[in-house]
Amino acid sequence: MGAIQGHFSRHLVALDAARSCKEAAELMHDKKVGAVAVTQKGEPVGLVSERDLVVQLVRTGVTHDTPLGEIVKRDGPAVGTAATDRECADMMRSHHCRHLLVREHGRVVGLVSMRDVIALMLEEKEYVIQTLEGYIQGH
Fold first, then answer.
1. 25, 32, 87, 117: least buried by Cβ within 10 Å?
2. CA gyration radius for the chain?
3. What is the DSSP letter of 129?
4. Number of domains, the chain
């Protein structure tokens, strides 16, 4: 199993907690990402995903003008840079999410998505296949 080190985005797409849900949706669309980090005083405090926005707008009746600070998942699941693809996948499954904050020495250093985890898993499987093919062929 491979560590996610080098397989996650160190560039966080982020908005301040005072910004609106509409601004978050527009930013996700423009940047082609599925979640944004929400910050307070410049520090990430959690994530808001596309799914979070839809659920909040439909189920709870918040409006597009609602500040992100009112809907952000604070202290949500996070992993360290040495986490394996399996650990990330298990955490995403158990928390019903597709994005995790990545922490190093207590600070948020990035974001790992389900897409990142799947790409790492596929790379590992390809390596195993190539190694076995080489072994079978006597190389």
1. 32
2. 18
3. H
4. 1
Domain that holds residue 86: 14-136
In sequence order, what E strands does the chain have?
14-16, 35-40, 43-49, 73-74, 78-80, 99-104, 107-113
Q: Can you tell me the distance from the alpha carbon of 54 to that of 52, in angstroms, rounded to the nearest whole number?
A: 6
> Which three-class secondary structure state does DSSP give residue 70?
helix
Whether 7 maps to a domain, the answer reads no
Amino acid at 57: L
State the CATH number of the domain containing residue 72: 3.10.580.10
| Residue 117 structure tokens | 């985890």
Decide if pLDDT at 1 tops 70. Answer: no
pLDDT digits 0-9 by tens, 11-64: 889 999 999 999 999 999 999 999 999 999 988 999 999 999 999 888 888 889
Check whether 129 has a pLDDT greater than 60.
Answer: yes
Residue 118: inside a domain, yes or no? yes
Distance (Å) of CA 96 to CA 42, 84, 109: 27, 18, 22
Q: Which two tokens stand for residue 139?
A: 């190389």
Residue 40: inside a domain, yes or no? yes
